[in-house]
Amino acid sequence: MEAMLVRERYKVVRVSDVRENYAFAEAVDILDREKRGCLLNLYEGPLLRAYLHCFDQMAACPAFLGIFLEGESLVTVFQDCTGTPIDQVFYRGDKHDWQTRLEYAEKLFHQALNMADLPPEVSCAAFLSENLLVDEKNRELRLRYHVLPLEGMNPRELVYLTCDQVKKILLSRFSSPRAELEFLDELDRGVCLNVVQLYALWRERSQEIQTAYEKLYRKNFFWRWCTLVWGRIRWYAARRKRR
Fold it and tell me: Which residues are bridge partners to 43 per DSSP?
């Protein structure tokens, strides 16, 4: 398989996903001077017809390198990228400070906004956990375009996926100020119908959350603890009232 060439240009080095009418492979562009890596999604049969229209709408995606027919397969080519899956970086018990969390939350919402004009079959697949890669050294959040077939994708699904991912970064913790807990509640209530509304909500709330953290960490340990306890009590009371 390592010697397999696609269109006499892409040397396949690894096939990591094979299922009915679909395959995903990592390859090297042998015609590229720097021999950069790329990702190939191959669709056959009914998936070829279903996905052909999707990849005619990819002008807004800088990682998209092209599309072509190879025999009875539709092949899409994306730039490869490196990083660690988000689930291995942000999880309950990790040691990230609040500044890092807000920074990566901003990056995540910005990535989602960039995906708003792409077909949901592509954007939703790119927002699965294994495709959200964190480069901690360069402080970047990247998308890996393993565009596996998903059923019933629509723009609202991208909102749900974005909310699920950001809650891994801004997960509810004892050290979370009330402003952050209330924002997470808004995500759970599904107040946004599309990614543009979701990003606007984040821009509105992010400054409040940052200000709350700054005020919190200007206090000494005792008053910070008291503020967190009182804030959580008020948060619980507000939640009960809404119910």
Answer: 22, 74
